[in-house]
Design a protein that fits this description.
This protein has about 500 residues and is mostly helical. It folds into 3 domains: about 120 residues, MgtE N-terminal domain-like (MgtE N-terminal fold); about 120 residues, CBS-domain (Roll), CATH 3.10.580.10; about 180 residues, Tetracycline Repressor, domain 2 (Orthogonal Bundle). Helices cover about 65% and strands about 5% of the residues. It contains 21 helices and 6 strands. The protein has a 3-stranded mixed beta sheet. It has a 3-stranded mixed beta sheet with strand order 4-5-6. It starts with a helix and ends with a helix.
């Protein structure tokens, strides 16, 4: 009994402590403020400390953070910084610059060539492509033969081919090596290659055989055969494959790097995870531009003529389609003159139709990018989009029927039956337009994909304009049949 009493006496205290813990858990978590690395780096660079102290401090900062402060420094400060950090570190910093050409231009050709030579070949190509052709050729001629060969290889591919995105920085091993010999080869190549987490193995004829995880090689016993460590089913892509065709495959494997082979299965380079992130970002930017009705992405400092070149063609096409929409509406002039109140709600029908079509378009493009659909699956997807459009139209149309009926009856002073006859026409037109727009938004990109066109060219503005036409015909056609000819309003 005493023990029970003691337990009961302690119970409230325990409960109170538990409550305190719960209060602590439910308190809002405050994210600590991050250090301002850019300000710290500038303070170090402009400080009065000896050069070796500055260098030691700057070694603690990521190259991307140092790259972000270069534009805040003057030319002399940048040159002192380059001399302080050394060629290899500067080349890594330049790889993170968004507009490296302006910093390359302020260097003498020898220094600029040395920096590009020390960079990953694919990063060097990105910079050379931004420079004037004459300047680019001058710098290329100053590089060593091996760097020139790597850059020429990458530049030989079209921009949409995966070979243009690869780097020649990788470690390769021969299949006939022992574990000890393989480790020696790894050490020899690691000095010049950053991508060492995956090692690529070649057969005697030089063709790609498979890959070895660095960890497996490190822990392997000397008596183990190298071949037993090789993953022979390791994924790869061919150099002339388009980015669009293989990007999803690359994303699915989630490897640090994936080899790029030529048609004879010789390894030419690798696509790293960093390259993949950049490729995905570029593809998303291009798709976003297409959805906006642009031929390509626009840059911040792009000339006016280039921006016009990208926008005007689509705008002319959309203008022609808009004229067709206006012509169709003019065909219903008698409906508009006889029942002008319906014009008030035209924007609602056209707007909702365009919104639904754009949603279906976005979903369809996403599905087409992620999966290879069979004909049966495509039909199922289209019907699914139509079902979504039907039920969305049913809900929105019902709400519209009630609210527009009340509005026309009370605010516009129409008779009760007439008001709800008009709102009924609006609700039905809205439901039908949303159903048809869902179908149009799904079927157009599928058709374009099947006939070999990029489905993203069925852009938002194009789908919206087509759906305006659908909505106008549906709305005014129903009004003509239902309100004018049947009800004689």
């Amino acid at each position: 009994m005493e023990e029970n009493k003691e337990f009961e006496e302690k119970k409230p205290q325990d409960t109170e402590e538990s409550g305190t813990e719960n209060n602590i858990e439910t308190q809002e978590y405050e994210i600590p403020e991050k250090a301002d690395y850019e300000a710290e780096i500038i303070d170090i660079i402009r400080g009065n400390e000896p050069a070796y102290v500055k260098k030691e401090k700057l070694n603690d900062y990521h190259e991307n953070d140092i790259a972000s402060v270069l534009e805040d420094l003057d030319v002399n400060e940048r040159r002192r910084l380059y001399a302080l950090l050394g060629l290899d570190r500067v080349s890594e910093i330049f790889a993170y610059l968004d507009d490296p050409e302006e910093f390359i231009e302020e260097l003498d050709n020898e220094t600029a060539a040395d920096i590009l030579e020390a960079m990953e070949p694919d990063d060097a190509v990105d910079i050379l492509d931004e420079l004037e052709e004459e300047k680019s050729e001058e710098l290329l001629q100053l590089m060593d033969k091996e760097a020139q060969k790597d850059i020429d290889l990458i530049q030989s591919y079209d921009e949409d081919e995966i070979g243009s995105k690869m780097t020649t920085n990788y470690v390769s091993l021969s299949l006939d090596l022992t574990i000890k010999q393989a480790m020696k080869r790894l050490v020899e190549q690691a000095a010049d290659n950053d991508n060492i987490s995956t090692l690529y193995v070649k057969k005697e004829d030089g063709t790609f055989y498979g890959a070895i995880d660095l960890k497996d090689l490190i822990v392997a016993r000397e008596y183990v055969e190298l071949e037993s460590l090789v993953i022979t089913s390791y994924p790869f892509v061919y150099d002339h494959e388009t980015v669009d065709d293989c990007i999803e495959e690359l994303k699915d494997y989630s490897e640090d790097s994936i080899p790029v082979l030529d048609k004879d299965n010789h390894i030419l380079g690798v696509i790293t995870s960093q390259d993949l992130v950049e490729v995905v970002d570029e593809e998303m930017g291009e798709d976003y531009a297409k959805l906006a009705g642009l031929a390509a992405e626009e840059e911040l400092e792009e000339p006016l003529s280039q921006s016009l070149k990208k926008r005007v063609p689509w705008l002319i096409i959309l203008l022609m389609l808009g004229m067709i929409v206006s012509t169709v509406i003019s065909m219903f002039e008698k409906v508009i003159v006889g029942l002008p109140i319906i014009v008030t709600f035209q924007s609602v029908i056209l707007g909702m139709s365009g919104n639904v079509g754009t949603q279906s378009l976005a979903v369809t493009i996403r599905v087409l990018m992620d999966e290879e659909l069979e004909f049966k699956q495509m039909l199922g997807f289209v019907f699914k989009e139509m079902r979504v459009g039907f039920f969305n139209g049913l809900i929105v149309g019902s709400i519209s029927f009630i609210f527009t009926g009340v509005f026309i009856w009370l605010v516009r002073g129409q008779q009760f039956m007439d008001a709800f006859a008009i709102s009924g026409c609006i609700g039905v037109a809205l439901a039908l337009a949303m159903l048809i727009s869902s179908f149009v938004g799904a079927i157009i990109p599928i058709i374009l994909d099947k006939i070999g066109f990029d489905p993203a060219v069925a852009s938002g503005p194009l789908i919206s304009t087509v759906n305006d036409l659908v909505a106008a015909v549906t709305y005014y056609g129903l009004a003509w049949v239902f309100l004018i000819n049947i009800l004689h309003l």
